[in-house]
Amino acid sequence: MATYTDSFNTMNAIKTMNNLPSPSLDDPEYIRQRDLLDSALTPEVVEEMRLMIHGVVNRVLDEINQKYVAPGKPFDLIEAFAAPVPTQIAYKVVGIPEEDVGQLLLQDEQSLEAYVDKMVDERITEPDSCNRGDLISRLAREQYRKGLMSRGDIVELALLVLGAGHAALVNSIGLGVLTLFQHPEQWAKVRRNPLAWAPSVVNECLRYNGLCSSATSSPDVTPSPQIWNGSWTHGRRPSDPQKFDIHRSGYAPPERQSEHLSRLELEIALGTLFARFPGLRFDSSAIRDVNTPLVLPPGTAGVMKLPVQVDTDAEMHRILITCD
Q1: What is the CB-side half-sphere exposure of residue 254 using CA atoms within 13 A?
Q2: What's the pTM value of the predicted model, to 2 decimals?
Q3: Alpha-carbon separation of residue 118 from 40, 174, 216 (angstroms)
Q4: Do the Cβ atoms of 122 and 144 come closer than 8 Å?
Q5: 3-class DSSP state for residue 103?
Q6: Environment class of 43 (CB within 10 Å of its CB; exposed 0-12, middle 13-18, buried 19+)
Q7: What is the CATH number of the domain that holds 291?
Q8: Is residue 230 a contact partner of residue 211, using CB atoms and an 8 Å limit?
Q9: For 56-73, what is each residue's pLDDT tens digit?
Q10: Across the beta sheet with 75-76, what order do the strands follow?
Q11: Looking at the domain assignment, is residue 234 inside a domain?
């Protein structure tokens, strides 16, 4: 039986998502939409998605284990993990049935818009469908029926989640893993207790890589990132901001409520990935076979390809280190 990742074409899917409408961040209409999205994706609502996110991450890792890890094969972490996980979560958050996801990923953005448009109509016109917990149902129930949001608003917000949110998470996962590979001492510490370190790793990776990372094409070379200071309280700059340090403290909470979802996804994705595959390592032997650069072009923040392999004996090694 074909798996989810078997039917997933990473670059085509990312292209489709990135081609969806992306308004200016200071556009008043966009700000209004984000405010409405915040009202739907409260921390309490996001917390209810925790089990769903764990399920998505573990299922994708099960497929990776069967297809690559068990046979001892290298693989592209972006293609196999960083892209499928946020995509599947985004579709589940919006409320698109799992059986439709594979086909939608193969279609263009116009087809996706038409699908979402029809789905919103169903949620609005069929009262029973609004009892569901997905985003479109919540917006139809809590916003549209109270006259706070139009039908078109719901369509645009759903596409916003499927587009901009998806691309940002793909890039954040790839950059997070690459950054840890570039700092082996801290990577070794994270490997010993990945679930406990996950929140700190996410906070520091978001700060360090920011919005315009200039990460290099090899984990053996230290990058020189443009530091993003928005994650610090009272405008206080961190000491030695050019240094990547998972021991930092003083991070401010997310500025928008909807950001809780992306942070939760990152914590679960990275923490579970490292917990299940502590032997994850950069596959430097694959560089000569890659015809495209690892990082995306200037002006974007993300990793195009990240060849990795898993040393299957690392689990016992981690246990021995922890017990010392």
Answers
A1: 16
A2: 0.79
A3: 21, 33, 43
A4: no
A5: helix
A6: middle
A7: 1.10.630.10
A8: no
A9: 999 999 999 999 999 999
A10: 75-76, 307-310, 280-282
A11: no
